[in-house]
Amino acid sequence: MSANPALDRFREHLPPKPYCTDDLTAGLQIRSLKLALQRAYIQHNGPGMVWVMVFDIDRACIDPTDFFPVWLDAGLPEPNMAVMNRRTQRGHLIYLLEAGVCRTELAHLKPLRYLASIERGYTVALSADPGYAGLICKNPFHDRWQVWEIHGNSYTLAELACHVDLTAKAASLPSAASESFGLGRTAPCSRKAVNGPTRPSGSIGHPMACPGGQKRS
């Protein structure tokens, strides 16, 4: 068994020629996967399938005062990885999906809307950046980032959905969800040029407890 199952699964579904960059202000380039893996930012989902959900956390992913991670505060299951800025501890939470969700012009809209509703619910629960487009993420293979690999168990949509109220106004989506939010905004997808609550006592929804995760400095 691999010592880094989450990293292995993340890499397994990367597009063969992803967008990537070392400098967001310089724009994105399309490179071979071998070269893209050497860049600080990388496209995590291909144009036709969603295998990864990423949430952009604009505050420390781990509370510096008591070391509680933001997902426990939000009542959400553990992400597979947290990829963080070494200085600020801000970063991306990465959830791996057990089955990909199609988002081409042939995709069924119902599972795509389901996925987009889950994404919206998690964004609200985590107070994640709602403007994050979801095209690229911090590359967990790059030494610029501190990577906390927590567990390698991928999630079904149902397992993710049971932690948020999809009927709540914040998570509900209009019928034109494919145009409105997050993952849904890219479906159907085409490649374009791109320039205080009581804290839970343990892990929720997945058997892998946070202290057992692998933290790569």
TrEMBL record:
<dbReference type="InterPro" id="IPR004322">
    <property type="entry name" value="Plasmid_replicase_bac"/>
</dbReference>
<feature type="region of interest" description="Disordered">
    <location>
        <begin position="192"/>
        <end position="217"/>
    </location>
</feature>
<protein>
    <submittedName>
        <fullName>Uncharacterized protein</fullName>
    </submittedName>
</protein>
<dbReference type="Pfam" id="PF03090">
    <property type="entry name" value="Replicase"/>
</dbReference>
